[in-house]
Design brief:
The structure is a homodimer. Chain A is an alpha+beta fold and about 110 residues long. The first copy, chain A, has one domain: Orthogonal Bundle (Arc Repressor Mutant, subunit A). In chain A, about 55% of the residues lie in helices and about 10% in strands. Chain A is built from 6 helices and 3 strands, in the order αααβααββα. Chain A has a 3-stranded antiparallel β-sheet with strand order 1-3-2. In chain A, a hairpin with a 5-residue loop joins strand 2 and strand 3. The longest helix of chain A has 20 residues. Chains A and B meet through helix 2, helix 3 and helix 6 of A and helix 2, helix 3 and helix 6 of B. The first copy, chain A, binds a DNA duplex (30 and 30 nucleotides) through helix 4 and helix 5.
Chain lengths: ~110, ~110
DNA sequence: TATTCCGGTTACCAATAGGTAACCACAAAA
DNA sequence: TTTTGTGGTTACCTATTGGTAACCGGAATA
């Protein structure tokens, strides 16, 4: 899910896209925001994601230093995820994407719903 | 290559990711920048992309209003692509991703190459 | 005793993305 | 006559992504 050729590019922008340039990671980071959140919550909040994919994405985000994983040795297990400094620094970028979309998106939605 | 479920979300951020959240589109937009550029140049400049994928991505970017396509009725054909206002407005976001990566990326590159 | 909770993992299968190579038009140049 | 240049398209095949459902531990609860 990470593109190795992109990650090994000598262009820093291409490397960034190789790391976070897929559809799930920005969504996950955006949902996390500044809070600490559990695996099950992410699974419940993010539409259409499967546990398998969520697990994989979280693992990669952790490997790339965007988030931190805290596993509490309890029964049943409890695991919390939290954005790292690097991950938090990415939030304003997501915010600007949101604003960009709101400004330029051509609305294809019906004006009203019955 | 566009995720329809994302594009039909009621969350503007999710829709944005559904539109530009794949690995090729940010790369293409970044390469285009403010200039007007021909298909063959994009094909030559962007590493590892195939003409088929480049064609598809350009078509989607045009449909989503990020770029404009100018086909000159010449033989041999000449086609130029240029970012629209919406596409140009996306450039600063890509720039901030670049800066974010430079600041936080953990270098796994060797310090020197023999 | 069976079930629930939680955060996964695994095996298996289906859908999608993406690559390759051939082909196209048509005019100009060799 | 053949080749070149340009921006694709197409058929075909493979690689990757992603989904589903079952399973796990181990204590608490019913």
């Amino acid at each position: 899910m990470r593109d190795e050729r992109f990650c090994n590019s000598n262009c820093p922008f291409t490397r960034a896209i190789g790391t976070i340039g897929n559809k799930w990671k920005p969504i996950i980071i955006n949902v996390m925001g500044t809070r600490s959140i559990r695996f099950g919550q992410l699974d419940a909040i993010i539409p259409h994601i499967s546990r398998k994919v969520l697990t994989e994405q979280l693992k990669e985000l952790e490997e790339d230093g965007l988030l931190e994983r805290y596993a509490y040795k309890e029964i049943p297990p409890r695991v919390e995820y939290r954005l790292s400094e690097k991950g938090l620094a990415f939030l304003p970028i997501l915010e600007s994407i949101k604003e960009w979309n709101l400004k330029y998106e051509v609305s294809t939605m019906p004006a009203m719903e019955a």
